[in-house]
Amino acid sequence: MKILVTGATGKVGSRLTKRLAQRGDHVRALVRDPARATSLHDDRIELAVGDLLEVESLAAAVRGVDAVVHCAAFFRGATPEQAHEVNDLGTQHLAGAARAASVKRFIFTSTGLVYGPKGGGVVREDDPCAPMEGYPASKLAAERFLLAMEGIDVRVLRLPFVYGDGDRHIEEVSPMMRGFPPAKRMSIAHHVDVAQAVARLLDAPSPAHRIYNVVDDEAPDLATLFASVGAPPPDGSNAERARAFDALLDGRRIREDLGFKPRFPRLADAIAAGA
After folding, report:
1. Residues 154, 97: Cα–Cα separation, whole Å
2. pLDDT tens track for 118-177
3. Separation between Cα atoms, residue 223 and residue 174, nearest integer Å
4. Which domains, and CATH codes, for the chain?
5. Is the entire prediction scored with pTM above 0.85?
6. In Å, what is the CA distance from 127 to each residue of 99, 203, 247?
7. Half-sphere exposure (CA, 13 Å, Cβ side) for 230?
């Protein structure tokens, strides 16, 4: 399969690009700056220079590919306006170019934050969404645009907190989450399992226009998550800020539809494997 991956120099996209190439796909990586893509050198990976906000740069990127896996996003540090421009309008530009080029399948990596505050409850894909902040609001808007498109097979993958595989994500967010309650649980998934989920969405002939949560079997509390990188537990001083992150993802649909089973079902399994 020939696949265009956007966000190929990011945390999820870089690891996904390599894994798709390793399984035998030919991957075209959309990058804004080729100098940042030195880690992607592989005979099955080609670079395409382009930008989601420069519509004319996207036609060549999508030409001749079977599928698009859209991982690019503006997350931390984005104003609501910037998030909307990149994550919503940029997605519309890319999807329009893909449909015009007769690309068969479009996979969009979204976020579990689209559900908004749920009081620590478990959420399924058809549950109502009420995101609190600009980033997940922009992702939800992009989801809705894509799922309303005709002429292209769209599949949405809502990600939890992604970790492992040399990613310093836990260390990077611990200062931001310092005020969260230590007993607060968080849905997580290992990079290996995100890649597995994407591969299953690429390979399955149906169903189209479908949303999937991907998540581990176990949602650790923040004290446990922080301890995995030697960080002290959060102090609970800003529980209100934590409300935006309190939905726990239900992962049954992707398992029932596509046979997904996490390689690392628990944080402890990844730690034991040195992964």
Report:
1. 14
2. 999 999 999 999 999 999 999 999 999 999 999 999 999 999 999 999 999 999 999 999
3. 10
4. 2-167+188-217+249-265 (3.40.50.720)
5. yes
6. 28, 26, 11
7. 1
